[in-house]
Write a sequence for this structure.
């Protein structure tokens, strides 16, 4: 085989029903592509989120177009990102491209259920894959595709029929070593990006993470399974360089200037006030506003003021459940949050003109109906502009999944390690193809509770007026009203 080998990195097509309007390039694949480019290997990114039926095509023909585009590129190595909710699409893509000489995968689902992926792939990369990918790239350049030789030498990889090659791939220490070159491979999508209207930022945005990890371990969350616990940060210089690079790429494409940033860090407020000030001042100079997510225990009034002054428009806080249960489902400072602390933080954000989005989850397997109704009451009582409540979705490897596994008799049909995890034909009303997380309550009941809670929250004149009071103009007030109408219907 002649060199250089071509690599296609593919993010499977999203089903649409879960996307609620967000469409943004995949940070994980961009980082891996940057490493491959640094190592001198030709690579392309194909992101199914941008083949989402919005151009008039249906779901399946869009999946075919994605596969056709990858086939045309004719890769020697196919790398597919495996997230749980898109596993059926992931399998279809791997089947349709089964002729590719070497097939690898990674991502949260591949890390927790590698055996499922190994039916279609030569190797599953476990956890954060940058370190492994660099070694793999060097080894492939040296040994070619003689699998498993190139893979044998790669740490943190599970090969067909085998166990982990060598030490597992530790979460990467030096995030800046990843590089930013990969962003140019997704510039073809920049003009199609879309973020949720309740973020109050522009669709001419860039999604980046300035850090990885958080200080908590929550029972429902899969993030610590990939990123470990504790926080690692990019330097401020690296963040600025990424933003500059993407702004230039947009200019070269003739696109409108970069107007907003969506920070996808698990906890943006884990940074110190002075670091947040440095990032914010840079953005304010460039006239770029932003939205982010944060963990409430790291909130301070000082950080809120600095961020608001430098362009923060909205912030997401995961509250998850009612006060009495927080410590039971969240290990770390987040479990200790009291309602009083939350109210203070939400009020302070609003006083600074920032919209607050709060997340609540119902349907933990060991919850009672009383817990669920208390979470609903908490959602209505806490003064957030956009409270979002959703039935729990259970992901492999998480404490809630382990809880269910230990009580299999309550969950007939719960997937075993050798089964397909997402089987949409079996529980087709369930988004990730599992039985309801509550053995004594169906998902439809949980969805009905969500509907009632949304009606109460979003038909509230008081909440609407409070949110509209921080709008900058009439157009934004109308946007809030439209958002409220939409949420009231969900
Ligand atoms: C930003 C984000 C989004 C964005 C963009 C999603 C995207 N896929 O790009 C939006 C808002 C659209 C979104 C939506 C949803 N998300 Co989301 N999201 C995140 C978040 C906060 C960051 C993702 C990210 O960029 N991480 C940083 C990169 C570097 O990490 P990574 O993606 O895991 O990639 C690394 C490894 O996994 C691996 N890897 C990944 N792909 C590949 C491929 C190959 C070939 C290899 C070798 C390695 C490899 O290497 C990468 C580098 O180290 C994560 C939480 C988190 N902190 O990771 C949740 C997370 C990914 N989301 C999650 C979920 C559940 C969802 C939703 C289903 C939520 C819902 N109910 O609607 C939807 C699904 C939409 C969809 N199909 O994409 C879960 C996934 C769990 C799982 N087992 O699949 C996570 C982990 C959060 C959680 N609750 O646990 N999400
Ligand atoms: S605080 Fe957020 S990111 Fe951290 S474990 Fe909990 S849900 Fe996951």
């Amino acid at each position: 085989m002649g060199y250089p080998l071509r690599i296609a990195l593919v993010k499977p097509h999203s089903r649409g029903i879960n996307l609620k309007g967000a469409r943004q390039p995949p940070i994980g694949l961009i980082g891996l592509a940057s490493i491959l480019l640094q190592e001198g290997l030709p690579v392309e990114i194909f992101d199914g989120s941008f083949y989402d039926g919005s151009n008039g095509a249906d779901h399946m023909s869009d999946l075919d177009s994605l596969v056709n585009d990858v086939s045309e590129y004719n890769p020697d190595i196919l790398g597919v990102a495996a997230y749980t909710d898109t596993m059926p699409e992931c399998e279809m893509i791997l089947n349709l491209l089964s002729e590719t000489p070497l097939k690898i995968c990674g991502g949260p689902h591949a890390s927790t259920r590698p055996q499922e992926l190994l039916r279609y792939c030569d190797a599953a990369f476990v956890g954060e894959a940058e370190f492994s990918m660099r070694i793999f790239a060097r080894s492939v350049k040296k040994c070619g595709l003689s699998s498993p030789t190139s893979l044998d030498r790669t740490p943190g990889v599970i090969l067909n029929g085998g166990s982990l090659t060598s030490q597992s791939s530790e979460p990467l220490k030096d995030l800046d070593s990843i590089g930013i070159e990969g962003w140019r491979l997704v510039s073809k999508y920049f003009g199609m990006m879309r973020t949720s209207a309740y973020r109050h930022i522009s669709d001419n945005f860039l999604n980046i993470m300035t850090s990885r990890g958080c200080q908590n371990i929550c029972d429902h969350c899969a993030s610590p399974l990939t990123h470990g616990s504790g926080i690692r940060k990019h330097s401020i210089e690296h963040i600025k360089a990424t933003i500059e690079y993407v702004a230039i790429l947009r200019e070269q494409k003739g696109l409108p200037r970069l107007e907003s940033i969506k920070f996808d860090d698990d906890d943006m407020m884990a940074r110190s006030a002075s670091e947040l000030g440095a990032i914010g001042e840079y953005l304010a100079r460039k006239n770029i506003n932003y939205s982010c997510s944060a963990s409430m225990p790291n909130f301070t009034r000082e950080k809120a003021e600095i961020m608001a002054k430098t362009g923060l428009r909205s912030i997401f806080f995961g509250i998850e459940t009612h006060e009495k249960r927080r410590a039971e489902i969240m290990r770390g400072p987040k479990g200790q949050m009291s309602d009083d602390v939350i109210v203070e933080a939400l009020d302070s954000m609003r006083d600074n003109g920032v919209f607050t989005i709060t997340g609540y989850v119902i349907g933990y397997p060991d919850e009672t109906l009383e817990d669920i109704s208390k979470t609903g009451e908490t959602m209505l009582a806490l003064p957030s502009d956009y409270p979002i409540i959703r039935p729990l979705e259970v992901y492999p490897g998480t404490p809630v999944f382990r809880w269910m596994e230990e009580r299999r008799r309550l969950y007939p049909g719960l997937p075993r390690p050798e089964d397909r995890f997402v089987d949409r034909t079996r529980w087709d009303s369930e988004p990730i193809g599992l039985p309801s997380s509550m053995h004594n309550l169906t998902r439809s009941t949980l969805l009905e509770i969500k509907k009632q809670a949304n009606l109460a929250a979003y038909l509230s004149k008081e909440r609407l007026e409070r949110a509209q009071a921080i709008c900058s103009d009439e157009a934004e007030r109308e946007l809030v009203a439209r958002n409220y109408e939409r949420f009231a219907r969900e």
Observations:
- The radius of gyration is 22 Å.
- The mean pLDDT is 92.
- The pocket of cobalamin (ligand 1) is lined by residues 9, 14, 18-19, 22, 24, 26-29, 31-32, 79-81, 83-86, 104-109, 125, 128-130, 209, 221-223, 226-227, 264, 266, 393, 395 (CB under 6 Å).
- Residues 324 and 338 are 9 Å apart (CA to CA).
